[in-house]
């Protein structure tokens, strides 16, 4: 089955699968138009020497995977400038935000995020670095091996004009254990500083497993701030393995869930899944995207 690159999928999608030729995607089911569909996707930086899995050989599959879920809000990680441009050109109906982690311009990977233009009105936006100098582009601290950052946006939902949504997307360091803990603490501090009165959505590649120290630091709830792990909240205990790093191999389920969607407790989590879409036995990235469908009264 041939699917155009620039495509808008009008049906919605959940965790069961359907086979189209050699492409396995999620099976469509209708959901309410007011629900908020969220996806977090580490798309693997496009300059990596990945051979048969190089960006040029899989970029169309990245678009197909995103379009199939049809997110209202999309957080991407490891997104270089030319990859962001490709997504901008091939995802219909989205506005994007992202800057390079090295200089706050176009240099280095971005934590680029996307939102549906006709649904949301931008109220404010920004970026900060995961360091002791968060307002300094390219800064790093603790034992971080590289500059790491967050991009965020505050939105008004035209379908539910009652409370703004604060959407933050990030990527934690892959080597520094202390940096991951401190980054989680910094994000909680920034949510309190920037997002009061908002419904919260946090997406990212956290390079840490369920119940790890960074996980506990992010989800250590207080009376001021309660965050829910959407997948853990919505998934039964007898669910299959929850690996989100695939290494480009299809069917990988055993391993750590290092990609998360966190939400404030004023959301109702209708579903949360690990999207194991594959094409001819290969995944569109070396991470499975993760998804959640949210609603509120």
UniProtKB/TrEMBL annotation:
Organism: Rubinisphaera italica
Molecular functions (GO terms): 3'-5'-RNA exonuclease activity; endonuclease activity
Name of this chain's protein: Endonuclease/Exonuclease/phosphatase family protein
Keyword Transit peptide in record: no
Record keywords, A-Z: Endonuclease, Exonuclease, Hydrolase, Nuclease
Gene3D superfamilies listed in its UniProt record: Endonuclease/exonuclease/phosphatase
Domain Endonuclease/exonuclease/phosphatase residues, every copy: 39-287
SUPFAM superfamilies reported for this sequence: DNase I-like (SSF56219)
